[in-house]
Protein 1
Amino acid sequence: MVSVVGVREVGEVRRRHLAVLAYEVEARGLRWRLAGPQESVLSVVGPRTRRQVMVVATPVASGWSFLWSGGGMADVGRVAEVADRLARLLA
């Protein structure tokens, strides 16, 4: 049996994953805001360097992954590791 997830549900799951990541990057001293249609992109900024990276959460064959500019990719279950990587990238 194939399960079909509607666009609305995908958007809700995406925002939930991005919100969890936002909490983690804020705990590391980074600034963030949700942007794009239906808040589908997380913009993360290093407050000292003012460097910025855009992060999306997208469904993949095995679940969900975060993708960010510069070729970054990680499973959403590794949110603390992703936040650490972003903090280093924006330092």
Note: The longest strand covers residues 52-60.
Protein 2
Amino acid sequence: MMQSISDKLFMGSLILLMISVVVSGIGFQFVNWRTQVTDELDEETNSSSARKKAVMERQDKSLKRVIRSYLFWIAIAGMLVSVLLSRL
């Protein structure tokens, strides 16, 4: 009984975690990723290091948005509760 509840809670939390990463973090940037990077580099030189720096800054901002998201922390808490329930 507890194992079934724990499994369902873990799967629900995992789905919530994936949703929070898509909504808060990467969003739908992967659809037009090349155009966004090109737009950011219009004023900069088109060197490889400038391109890498722009991409890294965007990834850092996305990661910060995910960590600040309430959905992310609710999903993590749900996973921890499900692990505790599976131990009982």
Note: The chain has a mean pLDDT of 79.
Protein 3
Amino acid sequence: MTSVQVEKNAGGSDAAGSASEEGYQRGLGNRQIQMIAIGGAIGTGLFLGAGKAISKAGPSIILAYAIVGLVIFFIMRALGELLMYRPVSGSFSEYAREFLGPFMGFVTGWTYWLFWVVTGITEVTAAATYVQYWNKGIPQWASALVFTVALFGINLISVKLFGELEFWFSMVKVTAIIGMILIGLGVITIGFSKAGDTASFSLLWSDGGFFPKGIGSTLMTLQIVMFAFMAVELVGVTAGEATDPKKVLPKAINTVPWRIGLFYIGALIIILSVVSWTVFKPGVSPFVAAFQQIGLPAGAAIVNFVVLTAALSSANSGMYSTGRMLRDLALNGQGPKLFTRLSKNGLPTWGTGVSVAMMLFGVWINYQWPGKAFDLVVSFATISGMWAWIVILLAQLRFRAKANRGELPQSEFKAPGAPYTSIFALAFIGMVIVMMGADPDARVSLYAAPLWGLVLAVSYLVLKSRNPDMFGKGDIAAVAKSAPQSGKQG
């Protein structure tokens, strides 16, 4: 459904029904959507990235996660308002196209696609390195190949299987964090293990204070913290395949505060009370370091397994979302028509297949030139991920303005405090981007963004010159229904 159709049907269209016109099967239930939402907020950014943030800011990193967590909640409630207005699989690019113009939809769709391709490359490669913890004799490329092919196969079977795999991936992460919190509480309160004599909540302020390196250092970690929450918006891409989106999605979005409170803030409070912040180093999981300090040798192996599942979960999500994004672009004339095809099971096989092929190519490059060829592209993934958040907020502001004027129906799931919360979130993201420019390690991503923008701008002008009517004037429902299945001729 394009913006033209939406305007015609603003008086009373069924959002859930319009989403089903895309041709997808609604195979994701409440249990799976909830765990996908939880899993999207827990990844290697917490299990590994937190070590660097702690070394830079000390205990005050807890405050940084709390502030960013609030901003993420504002973003997710803005997304929820849009999803209840019109839950579609294209999600961010669809809303950008409708409220910000066809060019913004084009940029958002292709940028989010690239974000997940690059993320898939890095996560599969990371998973392969984690395997070497148990057996260094297994070549990294072999593990990466096996993981990529296996996850691709799962994504070709059914959306239910994808959801089920994500459910169990998320269950592993959730169970592990809860277990770590309980063990840490036991060390602090009962005093068992060799860390029992020194473990105390007073470690949060007694070893150099709560801001041991100053407030400025804490502010500079905000970019690291922001990156840890990348992919939390993935629940929006599932809208077109949720069994009951108007019931399931609000529940998933409203769990964001307690997820962040428990899995990030709660976990960090515990490990920083078990071990002094001075012990943690960049590149080392703070959970591994904490278990080593406690004296549980199995802890490192357990955390390694959890991080492995986190990486595979992210790669699996990447394969899922890239196919949907390419199909949405194709349905709007902004991508090859081949990507409009669905398999007999209602899956965007061609879009997913092309994306996986690029992931495989990336694994090969990473094998040939580890740590060099991907520096520019991987760093760009972070800025492209934040682009999705910016678009969500801008689209929600435009939607709210139109709804208040009576041009569109009001959403059934209004964002509290909007538009002020959305404006605050936009300003916060802008501040983080400015700080990225002041950090030599993150600055490279800002160099890559204009180059990618130039490529998209030229591509858009070329496509529009060839067929001006395709941009913003097609009928997605009609195109989706006429799109052939993968096994048939187009």
Note: Confidence is low (pLDDT under 50) at residues 1-21, 372-376, 473-482, 486-490.
Protein 4
Amino acid sequence: MGAHSRKCDWCGSGTPVVRDMEPVNTAFQYWCEECARALIIKGDPIETYRELDGEPIYGRLLDEHCTLKRFYSFATA
């Protein structure tokens, strides 16, 4: 099943825009934009990720909402 046909693992309804490549819990790998934003604001951003839409949506969210810059890495195929 491709990422385009998946739903957000957290809310179960949103279309995923980012995949956590090193998830703490494998049941939560795919995140929609709203849930990903909530993670960042909570202070628990995804550190190793893959953008699923071809646009840097998650990278933009990090720039807009992350006050503590950590070492993030964009996973390539």
Note: The mean pLDDT is 85.
